[in-house]
Structures are given as structure tokens and as C-alpha cells.
Amino acid sequence: MPNEVESRAIEEFRKTPIGHHSTELQVILNEMRGQPMADKFCLISIKVNREWQLAQTTGVRGKPVKMLSKKFTNLEDAEWYVFKKRWKQLRGETLR
Q1: pTM higher than 0.90 for the full model?
Q2: Pick from 35, 1, 28: nearest CA to 12
Q3: How far apart are alpha carbons 55 and 44 in whole angstroms?
Q4: Please, what is the average pLDDT of the chain?
Q5: Residue ranges of the domains in the chain?
Q6: For the segment 54-68, what is each residue's pLDDT rounded down to a tens digit?
């Protein structure tokens, strides 16, 4: 379960996934981004500024990402979804 500082940062990201973030949230994002590239969740723009698809990196340079079936038409929802997936990978906890 996230501690109090993490809980505030998670809520901050949920409300505002794009833009400037607090130091506490930036620490979490840096930790997520700093994880090994293999199996990292990411978003691929499939219709510019209109549709995004969930993907997973292979961790092998030059090998394309693995496209997953989940698609989004709202970037903020997509970013929140990826944040929750990465949190699960990082902490083993499911965010709602």
C-alpha cells in the first residue's frame, strides 16, 4: 500500500498526468522511467492526437514493441492506465 507521500503523488498524477509535477511525483516517475526496458508499458500514437494503443517494450534494441489490444481516445486516461501498470510492476500493488 502506498505511503502518505506516495498517495498524494499518485492522486496528483491521476488528476494531472501531463505537465509539471511536484518533486515527490517526479521522484516516482523517474524511478518508473529508470526501470529496465524489457516489458515496460508504453503508448503508441496510432492516430495523431486522437488515438493511442498500449504496447510493451522488448528491451532489445531494434526489436519493435509488442502492440497490445487496449486502445484509448483520451491521452490523460491512457497515461493514467500506463502509470497504474508501471506501479504494479514497480511495487506489486494494484492502484484503482
Answers
A1: yes
A2: 28
A3: 7
A4: 97
A5: 4-91
A6: 999 999 999 999 999
